[in-house]
């Protein structure tokens, strides 16, 4: 424990679990007790946080909210199939290096090599950017499960020791650890080695009471009774076997839609005419139209 009372490994964004809940709420993110507790522990212990769950439950938004709370820079590594080291860590500016070599024709290779593998020619990507940052930083590694298994090897060094090795420059170690949040939609199983280095949080769709609070926070002009009806209908839709269940963001969009339409009740006609806001596949719309019973 340091003299100011913060844990030396942590970022110091939060002082307690209650502080997490309060500050995230001020930042527009309503956290359950489980979420608040896990975020506090990740912050205090300086451990990466792996957040897993279906698409649209607020995993990415959690990282953004933590960044707002900490007045921190948000560095995002968006994972996708085929992402490699040059896109995640760093690469060299080959065109600029070639110009430098061409300009120094009378130099020996040893002289040129010392120059072209310097800072001026280094293109930092998200992982290295976050490691080198001196300001408060939140590193979001988004949709980790979409990356190839080989990319997890790149993450292990970063998440174990918060350092990156650049052969030409040596090992770069973080002087100020970022708050690291990885997200996964569980489309593939992440390695045990990666999981060991993280605290784990499963984030599911919120219960009805919490989702109502979220809707009222994001769409303050919505009537309480209408908000209650909307959340019930969304819950019924999620219980169906749809190709894509409505996300929390789509619940909020639907609330804003109803407000824009001037709807004061969620009757059958309003639901039928606005289903395209929350359902994004025609077969889902048809299934919902057949099965949904308004109460």
Question: What does it look like?
Answer:
This protein has 295 residues and is an alpha/beta fold. Helix content is 47%, strand content 14%. It has 14 helices and 9 strands. A 5-stranded parallel beta sheet has the order 2-5-8-1-9, with helices on both faces. Helix 1 crosses helix 2, helix 10 crosses helix 11 and helix 10 crosses helix 12. The protein is elongated. The termini are far apart.
Strand order of the largest sheet: 2-5-8-1-9
- N/C terminus separation: 56 Å
Could you tell me the strand content as a percent range? 5-15%
Task: Give the fraction of residues assigned to helices.
Answer: 40-55%
Weakly predicted, low-confidence segments: 1-8
Mean pLDDT: 89
Mass-distribution shape: elongated
Q: What gyration radius follows from the Cα positions, in whole Å?
A: 24 Å
Query: Multimeric state of these chains?
Result: single chain
Largest sheet: 5 strands, parallel
Give the strand tally: 9
The tally of helices reads 14
| Coarse structural class | alpha/beta
The helix/strand order is HHEHEHEHHEHEHEEEHEHHHHH
